[in-house]
Amino acid sequence: MKEKKQFFAQIDDYILGHLEEKEVIAFQQELEQNIALTEALHSQERILRGMTEGGRIELKAELKEIHQKVINTPRPKTKVKKMDWRPFVAAASLLFLGLVAWWSWPLPANEPQQIFATNYEPYELMLAMRNETEDKRIGEAAKFYRQRRFAEAIPILEALISEEGEHSQKILALAISRFEIGEKEKAFLPLQKIIKDKDPFLSDLAHWYSALFYLQLNQSAKAIPFLETLANSPNAAKREAAQKILEQLKTL
Amino acid sequence: MSEFTDNHLLEMLSSLDKKVRNKALTSIYQENFLAISTYIKKNKGKPEDAEDIFQDGLMAFYEQVVKGTFKGTSSIRTYLFAICKNIWIKRLRKASSQREIYGKEEDFPQKEDLVLDLIITEEESKQLASLLDQIGEDCKKVLLLYYYERKRMKEIAKTLGFANEQVAKNKKNRCLGKLKELAHRIPHFKPFYRE
């Protein structure tokens, strides 16, 4: 009798796959002749389905948040260490006033390059390796890129792109790397590729960096179409920033 | 910037720390969404289909990881792509077969029963899931950790600060009792087995 009761206690372990093979066989043999156990099992399976549904609802909500984060903010926010802010209030206020004054001041002649300097940050590359040995080069490329050792990252990125097929994140990282080491004209080619492919994930960023690179080269006229595309696209990640730069450029 | 091997990601997905799990999911999302989204959009899908299918695929993959059925014989990228592709093909087939079912009268009664059973089961699962919000946050956590994330009682006890495995087990049983009691108050709900 005690053994029979034991089977009821094992129902959860059975449906969750926690039983040993021998125990599973014994449980299944008991199921064939014990109607009450079968009913109890079906009952618990209904619970499991309900809990699975509950877990999926929670996970789906989490994934939707991740989607927004990944699509809209490719560069994760840097954590700022909390500090006692009070001693800095006065200084911050003065700085703020200074910035407002600077912002509204007429733009000097070399403004495009200043706009570039204000807005440019290298793309935050996130690459996952499949395994340590097979994808050692991905890890190396990512490491060099992170350490701003762009000249070392370039040949690896180029090899990965040609061997493993096109991958927009690597292509964008290649463009940034080339620009960083001064191969400025060559930096536009990978960006054009991303834009041409209408990459839904990185096309906005390719427009953004194209515009910034032209600004750095003091070629505002070439930057404007890229900025306008972003400014007129309701869901573009850099829409507001592009609109702001266009406003600044009008005053030049 | 984040770089993880598949093994790291699998460990992180199985973590009881939600932040660690979220980091792994974010990394997998960032690394794989584009390829799957491109595939779906090239195969009659809209951008919103791509998002939905990728998330369903990632959920299915996550469930296989926590159940221990993902053996790692292929890379996460390959495996996830295959799951999403299958889900999308099934969804396309379902859409076209629904049109076929309702076009062929002789098939209708049999398939109608089958579909009805499925709808009842799905409906019941949704009702049970919605009851999770009525049994208290602690109970919800215990039941989801045990039944959805497949964590052992020992791990649950440690994570939620219970004195030992038995205390966690008792808590789980009490929470399950609460849930069943609420379920039985729903009109027409098929009762659960009672010893």
Count of DSSP H/I helices of chain B = 8
Mean pLDDT of chain B: 86
CATH superfamily name of the largest domain in chain A? Tetratricopeptide repeat domain
The overall average pLDDT of chain A, rounded, is 82
Number of strands of chain B: 0
Distance between the termini of chain A: 91 Å
CATH superfamily of the largest domain in chain B: RNA polymerase sigma factor, region 2, helix turn helix motif
- The gyration radius over C-alpha positions of chain A equals 29 Å
Rg calculated over all Cα atoms of chain B:
20 Å
CATH topology of the largest domain in chain B: Rna Polymerase Sigma Factor, Chain: A
**Globular, elongated, flat, extended or rod-shaped: what is the shape of chain A?**
elongated
Number of strands of chain A: 0
* Global outline of chain B: flat
CATH class term of the largest domain in chain B? Mainly Alpha
Biggest interface reads: A-B, 55 and 58 residues
Structural commentary:
The complex is a heterodimer of chains A (252) and B (195). In chain A, 71% of the residues lie in helices and 0% in strands. Chain A has 252 residues and is mostly helical. Chain B is mainly alpha-helical. Chain B folds into two domains: 1-103, Orthogonal Bundle (Rna Polymerase Sigma Factor, Chain: A), CATH 1.10.1740; 123-195, Orthogonal Bundle (Arc Repressor Mutant, subunit A). Chain B contains eight helices and no strands. The interface between A and B is large, with 55 and 58 residues.
